[in-house]
């Protein structure tokens, strides 16, 4: 396990240390605090900002020059200063340039930067390239060819080993790539609302449950499970929140009736974990299918859950 925080204090890092996990530090201030207190007694990773613009959009691009993540490659001298003054033991370098990376050569570009930086860290064992593998959200969408990328990365690693004699463990963190397709979000059609220009399907959910379409303009395939062979109609799918929580505009869906069950595909990543109780709405249950059987793995909120942390003062 590699703990990769951002803008946390030293106390939180110490809590992670108590669990004996790998620690990743991404700013000079915490690096100095850590070094002054622990020196080289606990090996660490350092997160590097390589100044590479990558990712599906600006909100999920994390390695460019204006990003809050990582220590800039131009601040290497400050890392070396802390290493010299506190004797910290840097065993790993980490970078994550963004999510939904369409061009796999971005990983190779980042790896070359890692190789250059590695010369400054004598105790280095690990190179962590983070994640960013592209997941297809609609027909014809790009998907990262992991096998092809693996061959290119292996070739680069082998070439570096032959020229320097140094070997590193190469890590990736393909979390979203592994779970996105595994999850589906089910909602019920509450209202079919015809206006002069639009037919709305109003469902019993909102961006409090699935915020990605509103926050990232993300596309999710939407299907009518209750009427999969019905004639296709054009609908705008909206939620039940007090703001404009539109899941999809002018989407072709098999005819939707009130009470029908609608599914959003590819909702296994950044779905429930980004959910909230906005508008005092309850969070949904989670169900896992294993070997053809359904298992409830998270209960649906009850009204009492909204109040359980409130304290009466009168």
Automatic annotation (TrEMBL):
Residues 181-268 form the Orn/DAP/Arg decarboxylase 2 C-terminal domain. Keywords: Decarboxylase, Lyase, Pyridoxal phosphate. Belongs to the Orn/Lys/Arg decarboxylase class-II family. It comes from Pseudopedobacter saltans. One of its GO terms (molecular function) is diaminopimelate decarboxylase activity. Its cofactor is pyridoxal 5'-phosphate. GO terms for biological process: lysine biosynthetic process via diaminopimelate. CDD domains: PLPDE_III_DapDC (cd06828). Residues 1-180 form the Orn/DAP/Arg decarboxylase 2 N-terminal domain. This is Diaminopimelate decarboxylase. The lineage of its organism: Bacteria, Pseudomonadati, Bacteroidota, Sphingobacteriia, Sphingobacteriales. It holds the Pfam family Orn_DAP_Arg_deC.
């Amino acid at each position: 396990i590699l703990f990769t925080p951002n803008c946390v204090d030293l106390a939180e890092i110490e809590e992670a240390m108590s669990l004996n996990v790998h620690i990743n530090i991404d700013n000079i201030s915490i690096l100095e605090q850590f070094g002054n207190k622990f020196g080289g007694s606990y090996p660490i990773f350092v997160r590097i900002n390589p100044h590479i613009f990558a990712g599906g959009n600006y909100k999920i691009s994390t390695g460019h020059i204006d990003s809050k993540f990582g220590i800039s490659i131009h601040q290497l001298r400050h890392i070396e200063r802390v290493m010299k003054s506190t004797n910290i033991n840097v065993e790993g370098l980490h970078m994550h340039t963004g999510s939904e990376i369409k061009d796999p050569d971005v990983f190779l570009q980042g790896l070359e930067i890692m190789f250059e930086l590695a010369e400054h860290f004598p105790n280095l064992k690990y190179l962590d390239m983070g994640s960013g593998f592209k997941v297809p959200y609609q027909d014809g969408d790009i998907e990262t060819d992991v096998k092809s990328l693996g061959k290119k990365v292996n070739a680069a690693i082998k070439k570096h080993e032959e020229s320097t004699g140094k070997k590193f463990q190469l890590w990736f963190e393909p979390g979203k790539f592994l779970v996105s397709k595994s999850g589906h979000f089910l909602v019920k059609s509450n209202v079919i609302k015809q206006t002069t220009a639009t037919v709305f399907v109003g469902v019993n959910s909102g961006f409090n449950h699935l915020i990605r379409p509103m926050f990232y303009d993300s596309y999710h395939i939407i299907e009518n499970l209750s009427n999969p062979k019905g004639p296709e109609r054009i609908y705008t799918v909206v939620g039940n929140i007090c703001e404009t929580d539109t899941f999809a505009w002018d989407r072709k869906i098999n005819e939707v009736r009130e009470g029908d069950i609608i599914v959003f595909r590819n909702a296994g990543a950044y779905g429930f974990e980004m959910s909230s109780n906005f508008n005092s709405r309850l969070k949904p249950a989670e169900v896992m299918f294993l070997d053809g059987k359904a298992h409830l793995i998270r209960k649906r909120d009850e009204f009492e859950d909204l109040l359980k942390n409130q304290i009466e003062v009168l």
